[in-house]
Model the fold of this input.
Amino acid sequence: MLNRYIMNSVKEKAKELYNKFNPHALTKNFYGDDIEIQSTKICALLAVEEAYNALYNYLKDTDELQNADREFAYWEEVEKEIHNY
Done:
């Protein structure tokens, strides 16, 4: 389980990613609120997936991969938080 400081950071990162992609999402004027929210979430989740994969690819050929549980847990928690929007 991540400590309180990291959990606050998770919430902040999830919100940052969601807000960053919201202007680029399909607009509610044309499709409705649900489509805008889902489109924004998909964009933010793709960014999390890219960060997670980049971390894995960077560490996979080193001895550091086995010590990166906290880093992977962080991105997994960010992903969960984005699903809450």
In short: The chain is about 75% helix and 0% strand. The chain has a mean pLDDT of 82. The chain has one domain: 4-24+31-83. Residues 4-24+31-83 form one domain.
